[in-house]
Amino acid sequence: MSFFQPQTRSAPQKQAADPQHQPWVEKYRPKTIDDVSAQEHTVAVLRKTLTSSNLPHMLFYGPPGTGKTSTILALSRQLFGPDNFRSRVLELNASDERGIAIVRDKIKNFARQTPRAQAVSSDGKTYPCPPYKIIILDEADSMTQDAQAALRRIMETYARITRFCLVCNYVTRIIDPLASRCSKFRFKPLDSMSTSTRLAEIASKENVPVTDAVISALIDTSHGDLRRSITYLQSASRLSMSTDPPTDIIPSDIEEIAGVVQSSVINNLATTLGVELVSSDAMDVDSSNGVKAKGFDAIRKTVKGIIRQGYSASQIISQLHDLIIEHPTLSGRQKAKCALAFAEADKALCDGADEELWILEVALRVHKALST
Amino acid sequence: MSLWVDKHRPRVLDDLHYHAGLSARLRALAASGDFPHMLFYGPSGAGKKTRIACTLRELFGKGVEKLKIDQRVFLTPSKRKLDVNIVQSNFHIEITPSEAGNYDRVVIQELLKEIAQTQQVDLSAKQRFKVVIINEADSLTRDAQAALRRTMEKYMSNMRIILCANSTSRLIAPIKSRCLLVRVAAPDETKTIEVLRYVGKKEGFDVPDKIAHEIAEDSNGNLRKAILVLEALKMQSTDLDKPLTIAKPDWETYCHKVADMIVQEQSPQRVMDVRAKLYELLSHCIPPTVVLKTIADRVVDQVDESLKADIMHWAAIYETRMRVGNKKIFHLEAWVVKVMSLYKHFFYDIDMSGFDD
Ligand SMILES: Nc1ncnc2c1ncn2[C@@H]1O[C@H](COP(=O)(O)OP(=O)(O)OP(=O)(O)O)[C@@H](O)[C@H]1O
Ligand SMILES: Nc1ncnc2c1ncn2[C@@H]1O[C@H](COP(=O)(O)OP(=O)(O)O)[C@@H](O)[C@H]1O
Ligand SMILES: [Mg+2]
Ligand SMILES: [Mg+2]
Q: What positions does the domain AAA+ ATPase occupy (chain A) (predicted)?
C-alpha cells in the first residue's frame, strides 16, 4: 500500500509531514498538554501557567515513555505558537554537544538575549507569549557534573528572561544545587486505565479492532511505558493485516512482539531447579508429578539452551522472579534467598556482566535455596 | 573466490532457512511503509545480519546490494582525527561503533545528522527514509546511547535505525523503548543440518549424516562456524568419508590447558604459571570474558559436584568486576586463586573461613 505514492514525487518537501506513514508514536504525540494522558497533577499545574504568565524553572523526571518530552514541547508550543517558537525556545538534548564549553557559550548566549517581540501569528490564533524564553535540556542526566555546575549561575542571573526545563530519567543524576532551583514534576509510569484509554483511542482512529484481552496484554508487557505499548500495537496491527485474509490481533501476538519468554521455557527451567509447579501451566512440562531437582550438569545444560534461544537475561530473570515470589508453597526464607540472587543479578547485568554466567548463577542459587 | 558462508548467504527473506514466522513478520513490516526502528538480538552466528540484509532488500530492492566503502575522517572534541570505514549504499549506511572507540558518540551523531538532513534524492526509491545499521550495538558507550535517544525521535521522518546486538542488557531502557525488539534464536541441530545439506548440494556433494550431526553439535547454534567447518573439512578430504576430527581453535585448547593446570596443582608457583598463560591469551585479543568462561566450563567438568556451583559463582562475580574495573588480568587471576583455594579446602578440609569474600 505504501509503494508508488505519486505525491512523493511531486511534492518532496512535504514528505516529512505525511502522517499516513508516520509511526504512531510520533503521529499521536500530544499536541497540547491536555492531550497528555495521566500525569494529572503536572498537567493541572502547567495549565495554570498558560494564563498566569509565570513559570518556574522546572525539572521533569520519570521512566521512558511517560510523556516528559511531549509535555514540555506541547507546553512551549501552546505558550508561543509556531511563529515565535524558534526565537523563544532552545531545545538541547544528549545528541547535542553539551560540554561545559557549550554551556558557557551557546546556552549562556541564548539565556541572556532579551526576548524578541512577539511576531504576529500567521495562523490567526493568539498565544500568551509571555516575556521570557525557555531552554529545554532534554536527557539532562547525561550532562556532566561540571556542565551542570556551570548552569547554576546562568539559571540565576537570567531568571527574569529565561526559564529552564530539565528533563531526565534519573533525578539523582542532577546535581543538588540545580535540582533545588527547580519545581520538580514526577512523571509516573502510566496506570492501566490511562494506558487502556489512550490505546483504545488510537486503535479506533486507526480502525484497528482490539479486544480487552489485547489491551491488557499491552498493559502487562509495557510496564507503564506508553511509547512501548503504542509501538507494539502498531507492529501487531501491521502483522495481522498482512495475512490473507487479515486476522484479528490476539494477546499472544503482543507477547511475541514484546519478547515475553514462553511460560513453557520458564517452567522447564523452574522444574530443573526443583520448583514444584502448581498452576495449570504445569501441564506443559512432562515431569509435573513429583518434581525432583536435578544436578549441576542438567542446570547448566538448560541455561545454555536458553542462551542459544537468545532470550534476554533480564526478561528470564524477571519472569523466574515472578514465578518464585508468587509461589504458594515455598517458604519465606527460601523466597528471601532467591530474592537476593535476583537483585544481585539485576545489578550485575546493569553493569554489563555476562548474561550466561548470571542466569546460571541465579539458577544455582535458587536451586540451593530450595534444596536446603 | 568467496567463502561458502558468504557465497550461500540468503539474499532475500524467502530464502532464509529457519524462523519462517519471523521472516513473515519482517516482510509485513517492510511492506507497511511505517517501518519502526528495530533492535535485532541473539547469539553470534544465529543469522541476525543476514536477516537484516534480507529485510533491507525487501525494503529497497536490489539497489541496496550495491555497496561502497568510504573512509571518513571525524574530528573529536579534543581535535584528534579519527579514521572510520563506512559501508553504504544509496539507501543505507552501516557503522560498527567499536571502530571509533571512545568517540563513538561523535561519529554516530555526525553521521546521523548528516543523513537526517539529506533527503532521499533517488526518486525511484521505494521508501522515503534511509536506514542506519549499527552493528555490535551492545558495545556502544552510554554516552552514545544517550545521544541516540532524541535523534531517533526527531529524525524519524527520513531515517530508521536498525541495531544489531548479542544481548539487550547492555542497552539503556530508553533505547529499547524506541525500538521494536526482534529476537533471532540460534538454529537447533535439525535446522543447522538442513542448512549444511543445502550448502553441500549447492557445492555439488552430499553431506554424510554423521558429519552433518557432528558439525551441528560442535557449532552449538553458530551457523557461521558450522559452515566454515564444513568447508574446512571438505578441503581436507574431498570425499568426507574418513573419520574426521573437528579441530578446536588454538585459544580454546590453550584455555583447556590452563584449566587442567588449575586442577592438577594449587600452589603459588602454579598461580605464576597460569598467569603467564592468561597474559598470553589476552595479548592475542581473546576477550577476557571468553577466557574466563572457557576455563571455568572446563574446570567444573573435573571437580566434585559440591564445588561446581561455588566455582561458577565466583566466575560470575569476578567477570562482573572485570567489566566495572580496569585491569582485566587482576580479576582473572583473583578468580584462579579463589578456585585453587576452594579446591584445596575441599580436599584437605582446611578451615578457610578467613578467605571468604
Ligand atoms: N502521558 C502521555 N500521554 C500521551 N501520550 C504519551 C504519554 N507518554 C508517552 N506518550 C506517547 O509516547 C511517545 C513518547 O513520549 P515522550 O517522548 O514524551 O517520552 P519521554 O517521557 O520523553 O521518554 P524518554 O525518557 O524515553 O525520553 C509520545 O510520542 C506519545 O505518543
Ligand atoms: N536463515 C539462514 N539460512 C541460511 N543460512 C544462514 C541463515 N542465517 C545465517 N546463515 C548463514 O550463517 C552465516 C552467519 O550469519 P550472520 O547473519 O552473519 O550471523 P550473526 O549476524 O547473527 O552473527 C551467514 O553468512 C549465512 O551463510
Ligand atoms: Mg524524551
Ligand atoms: Mg554478526
A: 54-191
